[in-house]
Design brief:
Elements lengths: L1 E5 L4 H12 L3 E6 L18 E5 L14 E4 L13 H22 L2 E7 L26 H21 L3 E6 L2 E2 L10 H11 L3 E4 L5 E3 L1 E2 H10 L9 E3 L4 E3 H12 L5 E4 L14 H7 L7 H15 L1
Helix pairs in contact: 1-5, 2-3, 4-6, 4-8, 6-8
The chain binds nicotinamide-adenine-dinucleotide and uridine-5'-diphosphate.
Length: 309
């Protein structure tokens, strides 16, 4: 198949591209490199069937001929980018998504949207199933990301209903692994690089907020399953092993063998207190299950950061 991956030079996107090329598909990445990097794809420079086009998808999608599948992953995703890249995030969630949908409609391609657990905001229902409508503060600093993705979902459903475009919505929960930027700002790259450098691990708030962390190979396996299946409704993908951020800091220190301590810093505005996916739909419809334990996933990520730091 011929497959477009927007955001394919980013962390998740580059792993998805590897998987698709391994299976013999033709892959075109559209990426403006705002948070991604050519380095994530440099090992593919001589791979036939692969092309990277530097393109801001909020401005348009180039003419690429016939395409079978359109994965829309382009969007900054780290909370540290929510203020400096606020407008770009809103643009790529709205204009970028509509450009992708128009393209998919014209090519009769399957449009697969990378949405997020952030559409649930600071959830009042726990764990989060796909029927929960969320608790989002649209005027807060996280609102730009949450509402961009909520708009993406709304317009995706509109194109499905009005224009009969084949669409899927994937609500991705916290995912980590090799190729995250050392200065990404998200919790795993922060904790691992702090531990490896012997600096204190910056725990925000009292560290009692929870997350459920999915290793990237599991996520990519789930994303891949959408190519064979076109669910009408959004599906959560992530890991349902929930833990506190403080215990994640302790586990990172243990696995790195670091002598680092932890230091407490203010909780960012709107930081969700609890997050864990209900994975019943993914298990039932995609026959998908996260398989990589936190210990194995962290170890592989630590090995990667040892090489790049
Ligand atoms: P990332 O920042 O590593 O990747 C995003 C990629 O999109 C980057 O390569 C960036 O340069 C590109 N991009 C951004 N705006 C663009 C634009 N206007 N035009 C073209 N390219 C653009 O982040 P990631 O963690 O790999 O996230 C990938 C997708 O998955 C995002 O849509 C994100 O919202 C979603 N997601 C990720 C997670 C996670 O935990 N990693 C969780 C929920 C949702
Ligand atoms: N966090 C932390 N220290 C850090 C980075 C993040 O304690 O150095 C916390 C953050 O407050 C949040 C959780 O870790 O509760 C996950 O943050 P991340 O930015 O990875 O993603 P989020 O789930 O908030 O989008």
């Amino acid at each position: 198949m011929k497959i477009v991956v927007t955001g394919g030079a980013g962390f998740v996107g580059s792993h998805l591209v590897d998987r698709l090329l391994n299976e013999g598909h033709e892959v075109i990445v559209l990426d403006n490199l705002v948070t991604g990097s050519k380095t994530n794809l440099s090992h593919l420079s001589n791979t036939s069937g692969f092309e990277l086009i530097e393109q801001d998808v909020s401005k348009g999608i180039p003419n690429l001929g016939n395409v079978d599948v359109f994965y829309h992953l382009a969007s900054p995703a780290s909370p540290i980018d929510f203020e400096p890249l606020a407008i770009e995030i809103l643009q790529v969630g709205s204009l970028g998504t509509m450009n992708g949908l128009n393209f998919a409609r014209e090519k009769k391609a399957h449009f697969i949207l990378a949405s997020t657990s952030e559409t649930y905001g600071d959830p009042l229902v726990h764990p989060q199933n796909e029927e929960y409508l969320g608790n989002v503060n649209q005027i807060g600093v996280r609102g730009v990301y949450d509402e961009a993705k909520r708009f993406s979902e709304a317009v995706t459903m509109a194109y499905r209903r009005k224009h009969g475009v084949k669409t899927s919505i994937v609500r991705i929960f916290n995912t980590y692994g090799p190729r995250m930027r050392a200065n990404d700002g998200r919790v795993i790259p922060n904790f691992i690089s702090q531990a490896l450098r012997g600096n204190p691990l910056t725990v925000y708030g009292d560290g009692q907020q929870t997350r459920s962390l999915c290793f990237v190979s599991d996520l990519v396996d789930g994303l891949h399953r959408f190519m064979r299946f076109e669910p009408k409704l959004p599906i959560n993908l992530g890991n349902d092993h929930e833990m506190t951020i403080l215990s994640l800091a302790e586990e990172t220190i243990r696995l790195t063998g670091s002598k680092s301590s932890t230091t407490f810093q203010p909780l960012p505005e709107g930081d969700p207190k609890l997050r864990c996916p209900v994975l019943d739909r993914a298990r039932e419809f995609l026959k998908w299950e996260p398989k990589v334990s936190l210990q194995d996933g962290l170890q592989e990520t630590i090995n990667y950061f040892k090489k790049i730091l």
